[in-house]
């Protein structure tokens, strides 16, 4: 079976309520076209976002440009919800995800199943809001062949509203554009970055933060390109773990 979602599906919360759960799951392929809207958000001043899952258990999932998933919390209070975008084979993400929460509340949580993750200004994938609870990956390992995702690290880009950025890739993570963590997350507090790759992490451009924490873990190697730097101004920490033998003991 295949699913093509062209319209609007909502399970929103009224005042002080909890938004519901939406699951769009096929066997052979799931497509969210331009204009597709999935909402499990708070429609009031106080309320909590819900749970939206989009998957193809044996095929491809694609979220096209102009499609939107929204699990935002209330305008004044309430945590945002959770989004899971997955596929057994190829995952294409070109739409918009929104997980906005009021100050002091938890932003949205987002899970993908990427093969490779690239950090580059050319990135078209954008996750607006989402900040998973501490210690919970925003991008998770997958056992199946997955997508190659490219995220824009600039202000207002893919990680706007995050506090902890926690990315996992089944193969490699490549930082191909300068990445200022504080600018990337916006005024959400002290940023924390955790990158985990089953194979390589390549820092090909400068990575920096003011007072933030950076953790890089790779099963093979963490490589810093010539004339590039990792900089932590003020307080903060840098932790790098790599296994040059590639035997899986890096983390």
Q: How are the secondary structure elements laid out?
A:
Elements: E1 2-5, E2 8-10, E3 17-18, E4 21-26, E5 29-32, E6 37-39, E7 47-48, E8 51-56, E9 60-63, E10 68-70, E11 82-85, E12 91-93, E13 96-98, E14 109-111, E15 114-119, E16 126-128, E17 147-151, E18 164-169, E19 172-175, E20 179-180, H1 181-185, E21 192-197, E22 200-203, E23 207-210, E24 213-218, E25 221-224, E26 230-233, E27 237-242
Kindly provide the radius of gyration, computed on alpha-carbon positions and rounded to a whole number of angstroms.
18 Å
- Relative helix content: under 10%
The description of the largest β-sheet is: 5 strands, parallel
Give the SSE string: EEEEEEEEEEEEEEEEEEEEHEEEEEEE
Query: What general form does the structure show?
Result: globular
Distance between the termini: 39 Å
Structural class: mainly beta
Oligomer: single chain
The counted number of beta strands is: 27
Q: In terms of per-residue confidence, which ranges show pLDDT below 50 for 5 or more consecutive residues? A: 124-132, 139-145, 246-251
Biggest sheet, strands in spatial order?
Answer: 2-6-10-13-16
Total of DSSP H or I helical runs spanning 4+ residues: 1
* Nearest-integer average pLDDT: 83
| Strand portion | 35-45%
């Amino acid at each position: 079976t295949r699913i093509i979602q062209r319209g609007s599906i909502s399970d929103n919360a009224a005042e002080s309520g909890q938004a519901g759960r939406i699951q769009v799951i096929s066997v052979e392929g799931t497509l969210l076209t331009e204009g597709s809207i999935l909402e499990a958000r708070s429609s009031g001043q106080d309320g909590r976002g819900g749970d939206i899952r989009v998957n193809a258990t044996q095929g491809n999932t694609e979220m096209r440009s102009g499609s939107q998933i929204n699990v935002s919390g209330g305008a004044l209070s309430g945590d945002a919800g959770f989004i899971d975008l997955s596929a057994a084979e190829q995952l294409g993400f070109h739409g918009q995800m929104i997980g906005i929460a009021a100050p002091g509340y938890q932003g949205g949580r987002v899970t993908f199943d990427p093969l490779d993750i690239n950090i580059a200004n050319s990135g078209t994938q954008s996750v607006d809001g989402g900040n998973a609870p501490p210690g919970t990956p925003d991008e998770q390992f997958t056992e199946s062949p997955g997508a190659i995702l490219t995220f824009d690290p600039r202000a207002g880009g893919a990680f706007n509203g995050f506090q902890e950025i926690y990315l996992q890739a089944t193969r490699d993570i490549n930082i191909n554009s300068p990445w200022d963590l504080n600018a990337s997350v916006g005024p959400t507090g002290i940023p924390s970055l955790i990158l985990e790759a089953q194979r390589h992490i390549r820092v090909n451009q400068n990575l920096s933060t003011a007072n933030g924490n950076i953790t890089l873990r790779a099963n093979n190697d963490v490589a810093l390109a010539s004339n590039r730097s990792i900089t932590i101004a003020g307080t903060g920490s840098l932790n790098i773990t790599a296994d040059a033998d590639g035997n899986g003991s890096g983390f």
